[in-house]
Specification:
Largest sheet: 7 strands, mixed
Oligomer: single chain
CATH architecture: 3-Layer(aba) Sandwich
Strand content: 25-35%
Number of domains: 1
Structural class: alpha+beta
Helix content: 25-40%
Number of helices: 6
CATH topology: Aminopeptidase
């Protein structure tokens, strides 16, 4: 196994990412797998990911030519491209972090992070976020995301790499209790 961390360069990498996403959607896995391994909730399409990648490089983990993990960058400018995320961006507009409105900082939302089942527990999650910091900390002050409160594996992993919980809310669009977490690059 030779894991490398990179940005998306080809249409094939985008398609592999979308295939990995489908395998890990909460609706496509058992509740037991979701509870033990984590899950993703938002569905992207090829066009949207292509546009996101043109705006800000999207981060992937590869084993040879195979995409085995990803950590998407969702710039605020894409707030209306995925309707279920509009409420999150509206909430972020009103949230403060360290006595400053998030909307007044240079921030991006973590679009989603996922690692192929056979590659979990090998540091890829942390490597994806290390690549985020290396690629994006000169351009952004803050990375913000929301994690379903029941997704305990993801919450623990995000805390481990440096995120802190800054807010909790119930979203009626995606009926779920969410933790809003932030990672300060400053």
């Amino acid at each position: 196994m030779n894991i490398t961390f990179a940005t998306i360069k080809t249409d094939q990498e985008i398609q592999q990412l979308l295939d990995l996403q489908q395998l890990n959607l909460a609706k496509n896995i058992s509740e037991e797998v979701a509870n033990n391994q984590g899950f993703v909730t938002v569905v992207h399409n090829f066009d949207l990911l292509s546009r996101m990648n043109q705006s800000v490089p999207q981060i992937i983990a590869k084993d040879g030519d195979k995409v085995v993990g990803y950590a998407l960058v969702m710039p605020e400018s894409f707030r209306f491209d995925i309707p279920v995320l509009t409420a999150m961006f509206e909430m972020l507009d009103k949230l403060e972090y360290k006595e400053k409105l998030i909307k007044d900082t240079k921030y991006y939302a973590m679009g989603q992070i996922c690692v192929t089942e056979d590659y979990r527990g090998q540091g890829i999650f942390d490597g994806l976020y290390a690549k985020h910091k290396a690629e994006l900390s000169a351009r952004f002050e803050l990375c913000v995301t929301e994690i379903a409160k029941r997704n305990l594996r993801s919450l623990a992993a995000h805390k481990r790499v440096g995120f802190e919980i800054i807010h909790e809310y119930f979203d009626t669009t995606y009926p779920e209790l969410w933790e809003v977490v932030a990672w300060d690059f400053r």
